[in-house]
Amino acid sequence: MLKINNLAVRYGAIEALRGVSLEVKIGEVVTIIGGNGAGKSTLMKAISGLEPAFAGGIAFEGRDITRMPAHHRVALGISQSPEGRQVFADQSVRDNLLLGAYLRKASDPSIALDVETQFTTFPRLRERQHQLAGTLSGGEQQMLAIARALMARPRLLLLDEPSLGLAPLIVKEIFAVIRALKQSGVTILLVEQMANQALKVADRAYVLKTGEITSSGGARAMLDDPAVREAYLGKH
Ligand code: ATP
User: How far is the CA of 123 from the centre of ligand 1 (A)?
Assistant: First the structure.
């Protein structure tokens, strides 16, 4: 579904990614694990079109999207839930969801159906649908960011650190949702510092270290790999 070949991204003189190659197959959950500043968010932005590639290529379903503008990538089925949630704080929960469907005409009846689907997946958002998004708790805002990304009906969902700054119980809830999305057939690329959780839900994983992929493999095998455990799982 997604094939990245030798990707490099630069911020001026800073080489945030170099020689990154990876793939995501249809129906898979693939996770990218790596520490602070490894380049995880940069990779997500390069896939969604928010950061330009300096070199290399990105193909989605066999089509070269390397230079395609972000909104065209959304139309193809790539949707991102950004790091740090970034909901529209002064708009209601419902309006945030509607914004996720911005490529469809406002009168399209499928939008209301999709809002209903999100409320079924995230009952707390239904209860708070008329509340301003900025008044939600961190966990609820994360749910809203994921639900908003799903309103674009993605074939590939990009989740950038969905557990960031959340209490353990909420993290559990978020990962339960990711598991349910996987079962419903959504293909997911998940960036996480919580490697333990991410490796439990993923099929395969890549380790990103200072802009380069240093290892990759089955998620189960990674979870048992002493080097990965020591570097990313806090040795427990
Ligand atoms: P974190 O988990 O801390 O968010 P990350 O793995 O997502 O880290 P990135 O945010 O992708 O890492 O950053 C990769 C590198 O690129 C870092 O060295 C960072 O300082 C640098 N960087 C990121 N964004 C910019 C920017 N807009 N301008 C300049 N440098 C940037």
Answer: 34
